Amino acid sequence: MASSQFSLPPSLEASRIAGLPPSAYYIADFISEEEEQKILEKVERAPKARWRQLTHRRLQTWPSDLVKNTLLDGQPLPAWLEEPIISRLLSVPVLPSSSDSSGDEKEKQQQQHIFADSPHGRPNHVLINEYPPNTGIMPHKDGAAYHPVVCTVSLGSSLCLNLYKAKEDGALDSEPVWRILQEPRSLLITTADLYTEYLHGIDPLSADVNMSERTIANWSLLREPSLYQNGENQRGVRVSLTYRDVLKVSKLGSKLGPMFNRRP
């Protein structure tokens, strides 16, 4: 039975995806159904100027687009993108505290959340993508503008994320190295080698097929693996919130805010 509440692990290590290069983590119930619906309503009610229409999908960028890999610091993230997601990201330590550590050491360990080493100590940028069925995105890397931690919250529907490894000649195998199923209300974190060395993409399908414990890397961490026992996932409209820390932030944006941050 689906959970309507969120459920955080004692540490990210408890949610690490075994079999992948460290470190990748998956939390099935990162937000509740009520929180999911509230965020989806905010996404849908955003002003039309916030949406960028691509060929087969559309997206929003908060608080603004990057200019030459730089965030122009004029506006904070809106409250509905801050809470509850960012506070929860910062509340879960990467590693469990050691029982034989001193009090000070335990406290320090508990403070080491996934953004502890990023320039701003927290995400400062959110990309919202909407994926209707039969919509995907080509394999790609996120680039050098961001600290190498990507936190993606999925809303609305499940789909498979494919991970690819480029060959020495730069060519890409048609088949992914791994597949990760992202359920509604889940959080997927990728960092380290998975960020720098691998590409990720989504096939433009109406249904994900050939799904099993052998083919889905995070199968043991899924909320409801029984839903996919027939090996298929019929896609609906999936919305993703991708949280990252932009390395370069220019204070120029606060002076030129009306020009560069004119979208409400």
Secondary-structure topology with pairs:
Blueprint: E1 24-27, H1 33-45, E2 52-53, E3 58-62, E4 66-67, E5 70-72, H2 79-82, H3 85-91, H4 103-110, E6 125-131, E7 137-140, E8 149-155, E9 159-165, E10 178-182, E11 187-191, H5 193-196, E12 198-202, E13 207-208, E14 233-234, E15 238-244, E16 248-250, H6 252-255, H7 257-260
Parallel strand pairs: 5-16
Antiparallel strand pairs: 1-11, 2-3, 3-6, 4-5, 6-15, 7-12, 8-11, 8-15, 9-10, 9-12, 13-14
Walk me through the structure.
The protein has 264 residues and is an alpha+beta fold. It has one domain (12-260): Alpha-ketoglutarate-dependent dioxygenase AlkB-like (Jelly Rolls), CATH 2.60.120.590. It is built from seven helices and 16 strands. The chain has helices at residues 33-45, 79-82, 85-91, 103-110, 193-196, 252-255, 257-260; strands at residues 24-27, 52-53, 58-62, 66-67, 70-72, 125-131, 137-140, 149-155, 159-165, 178-182, 187-191, 198-202, 207-208, 233-234, 238-244, 248-250. A hairpin with a 4-residue loop joins strand 2 and strand 3. Mean pLDDT is 89; it is low at 256-264.
Task: Give a quick set of tags describing it.
264 residues; alpha+beta; Jelly Rolls; seven-stranded antiparallel sheet; four-stranded antiparallel sheet
The helix count comes to 7
Q: What is the CATH homology-level superfamily?
A: Alpha-ketoglutarate-dependent dioxygenase AlkB-like
The total tally of domains equals 1
The rough form would be described as globular
CATH class: Mainly Beta
Distance between the termini: 39 Å
- Would you give the CATH topology? Jelly Rolls
Structural class: alpha+beta
Strand line-up across the major sheet: 1-11-8-15-6-3-2
Average pLDDT metric: 89
CATH second-level architecture: Sandwich
Instruction: List SSEs in N-to-C order.
Output: EHEEEEHHHEEEEEEHEEEEEHH
GO molecular function: dioxygenase activity; metal ion binding
Pfam family, one: 2OG-FeII_Oxy_2
Region (Disordered): 97-122
Family: Belongs to the alkB family.
